[in-house]
Design the sequence.
């Protein structure tokens, strides 16, 4: 769609996840259009990587940036003027220089492409004022070229900004979705983050990975620990000299040091395909930043892991970093205040991600405006079992405390007060004499903060939009105080998983048998040798996925090699025979089975062109289901609340292979079937029953809270209980999956 639109002369805006082929959307039209395509790119490393990949594919491309001397730049512009290059990558700062502007005025510029286009928006997570120079540059050209803009992470607000600020004319817009299905997400809260990372990296010695830290100090400490453990590691942050940063980045890209410990200044321009894990040692400042950084894993489409190590201290560190962030003097006071509010809101959203008990993938996708199912079964929350606990009384105490403190303090003080902490600051504020002090001592400060976070997400509490972020009570919270609504909190039943047990994807060792793995290592060594000879990263020669597919297919000739995923005519011409020779030498010209199972049993490995082989996933529990025999043992009652009904159903299941259901899931199904609704009135949320629901046996009845307050809730009578059982019977569950 986007390629056709560009070729027809139309502006485009493409929002596509990392690894989805954004570059192809402007590179292919660049070859078809008559003149030159200029690509505005934010980082030198990104330009170099793209140009190297294009040149390897036989496409003449160049970059112009500060890494070149003035003589080299002049030479490149001369060659470009003669039609030597179809694609030229350039930094936005270069657009206003005299020599480049003169070149552009006299050259045939068919298209101007803005890569990482979110940088042009003040609402983007990485706003760069230099991107605003693009508009002036376009005005200086004798003829306006086609303008195309691409980015991986952009909310609806940012997308609108990109189109307006760049002046896109009736653009063809495509949002392909933000989901990276090969990425597995996890949030863990280890007591010792450094020990967690050491164990994780030790268990993944054969893999390449990135570990992001929020401060240089953490980078240096973690780097030294890994180095002492004889891990091939390097580091990257702004405190290193330019040459050292360049060398360290090169060592990582070329797999000389497959593990990189870095601040978030690293990686935006890195297209390293075989990064198998990204660990965030500290929580990032926004979900946009997190998803972009996590997205550097698994760019080859193979399974990869994204682990965020969370602690409450991360929030305070990020608040400090935001408050001390250098602001652009060109902004007005009002604009600076808007930016501060935006940053604070992003940090809150990021913090909620770390605390949610719901599907992590769904949380990310919903943030970017994409609807998704309830569970992805490929994140730490979906793999955990949660127990639902009623915490209505505890929520009332939180509300009372915030009111008693008159909304003058933030989360830390409120949580510390409720937990009865004896730190000096609380004594200084005088909160130790308040009636709320220590009223939730049995929960502990961490669980109190989790409850507060849920109440913030539910809209019962709010934080002021300033740097102090004070807790305030919202009107709808009175529904809890008056006993009109209960508060249910989900908490994980098991301890956080250890690094070696976290595995959302399937690894190549699950596909290849011992002979296959041995051949894979020989092919990888050959790839490294070729990369050293040609001075390029190994993944540009062939990706790990391509090498794995070679081990599966065992090609002995050109035709068979061209059927391997990632091997085209150009790549075969350059490297094909050397890899064929290695395969023939290892196999002795005899085709054997170098992988487990059959192609069909493995379920379609992504690297194979026909049917392929897929790595076998470990057996996981299926969604809640029961059979007829189990259903007959159900203990009926006059009425059940949804959580009570779920508890009775869970007693019937096969606990070894079937996950639990919950009251929330039962109510959600009732909503889907039009039996019940959740309505908001006067700031309160209430459950109601439709006429169809009444006929099915659902009704609203009264119940008492722990304090003896009477309020209404949704009940299921015997008829409704039988209906709910029918929802979960195995026969229907199978047909649903087939549909």
Sequence:
């Amino acid at each position: 769609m986007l390629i056709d639109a560009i070729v027809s002369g139309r502006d485009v805006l493409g929002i596509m996840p990392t690894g989805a082929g954004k570059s192809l959307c402007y590179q292919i039209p660049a070859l078809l259009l008559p003149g030159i395509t200029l690509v505005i790119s934010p980082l030198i490393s990104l330009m170099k990587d793209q140009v190297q990949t294009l040149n390897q594919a036989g496409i003449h491309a160049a970059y112009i940036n500060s890494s070149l001397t003035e003589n080299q730049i002049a030479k490149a512009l001369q060659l470009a003027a003669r039609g030597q290059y179809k694609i030229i990558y350039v930094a936005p700062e270069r657009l206003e220089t005299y020599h480049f502007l003169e070149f552009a005025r006299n050259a045939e510029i068919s298209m101007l492409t803005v890569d990482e286009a979110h940088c042009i928006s003040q609402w983007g997570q990485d706003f760069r004022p230099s991107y605003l120079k693009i508009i002036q540059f376009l005005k200086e050209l004798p003829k306006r070229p086609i303008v195309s803009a691409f980015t991986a992470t952009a909310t609806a607000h940012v997308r609108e900004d990109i189109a307006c600020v760049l002046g896109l004319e009736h653009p063809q817009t495509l949002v392909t979705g933000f989901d990276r299905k090969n990425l597995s997400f996890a949030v863990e809260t280890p007591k010792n983050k450094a020990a967690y990372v050491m164990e994780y990296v030790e268990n993944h010695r054969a893999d390449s990975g990135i570990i992001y830290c929020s401060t240089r100090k953490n980078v240096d400490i973690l780097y030294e620990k890994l180095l002492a453990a004889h891990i091939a590691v390097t580091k990257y942050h702004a405190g290193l000299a330019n040459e050292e940063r360049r060398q360290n980045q090169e060592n990582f890209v070329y797999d000389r040091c497959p593990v990189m410990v870095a601040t978030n200044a690293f990686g935006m321009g890195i297209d390293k395909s075989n990064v198998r894990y990204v660990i965030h040692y500290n929580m990032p400042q926004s979900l946009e930043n997190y998803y972009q950084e996590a997205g550097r894993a698994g760019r080859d489409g193979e399974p990869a892991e994204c682990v965020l190590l969370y602690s409450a201290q991360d929030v305070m560190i990020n608040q400090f970093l935001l408050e001390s962030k250098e602001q652009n003097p060109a902004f007005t006071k009002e604009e600076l205040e808007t930016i501060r509010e935006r940053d604070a809101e992003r940090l809150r959203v990021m913090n909620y991600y770390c605390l949610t008990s719901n599907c992590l993938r769904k949380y990310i996708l919903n943030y970017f405006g994409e609807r998704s199912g309830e569970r992805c079964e490929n994140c730490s929350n979906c793999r955990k079992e949660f127990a639902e606990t009623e915490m209505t009384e505890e929520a009332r105490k939180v509300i009372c405390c915030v009111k008693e403190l008159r909304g003058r303090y933030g989360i830390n003080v409120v949580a510390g007060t409720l937990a009865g902490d004896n730190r000096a600051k609380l004594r200084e504020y005088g909160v130790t004499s308040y009636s709320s002090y220590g009223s939730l001592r049995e929960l502990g400060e961490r669980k109190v903060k989790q409850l507060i976070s849920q109440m913030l997400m539910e809209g019962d509490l709010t934080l002021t939009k300033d740097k102090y972020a004070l807790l305030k009570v919202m009107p709808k919270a009175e529904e809890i105080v008056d006993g009109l609504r209960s508060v249910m909190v989900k908490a994980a039943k098991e301890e956080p998983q250890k690094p070696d047990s976290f595995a959302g994807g399937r690894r190549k060792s699950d596909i290849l048998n011992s002979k296959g793995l041995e051949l894979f290592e020989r092919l990888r060594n050959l790839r490294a040798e070729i990369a050293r000879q040609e001075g390029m990263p190994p993944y540009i020669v062939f990706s790990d996925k391509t090498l794995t597919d070679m081990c599966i297919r065992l090609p002995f000739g050109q035709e068979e090699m061209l059927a391997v995923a990632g091997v085209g005519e150009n790549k075969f011409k350059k490297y094909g025979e050397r890899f064929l020779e290695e395969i023939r030498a290892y196999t002795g010209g005899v085709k054997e089975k170098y992988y487990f199972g059959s192609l069909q049993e493995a379920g379609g490995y992504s690297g194979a062109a026909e049917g392929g082989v897929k790595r076998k996933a470990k057996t996981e529990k299926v969604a809640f289901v029961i059979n007829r025999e189990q259903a007959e043992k159900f203990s009926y009652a006059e009425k059940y609340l949804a959580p009570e009904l779920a508890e009775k159903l869970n007693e019937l299941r096969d606990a070894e292979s079937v996950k639990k259901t919950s009251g929330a899931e039962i109510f959600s199904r009732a909503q889907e079937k039009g039996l019940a609704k959740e309505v908001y009135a006067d700031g309160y949320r209430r459950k109601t029953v439709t006429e169809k629901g009444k006929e099915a046996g659902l009704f609203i009845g009264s119940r008492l809270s722990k304090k003896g307050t009477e309020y209404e809730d949704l009940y299921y009578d015997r008829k409704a209980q039988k209906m709910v059982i029918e929802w979960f019977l195995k026969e229907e569950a199978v047909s649903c999956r087939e549909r």
About this structure: The chain has five domains: 2-175, 183-369, 386-492, 508-602, 628-738. The mean pLDDT is 84. The longest strand covers residues 710-717.
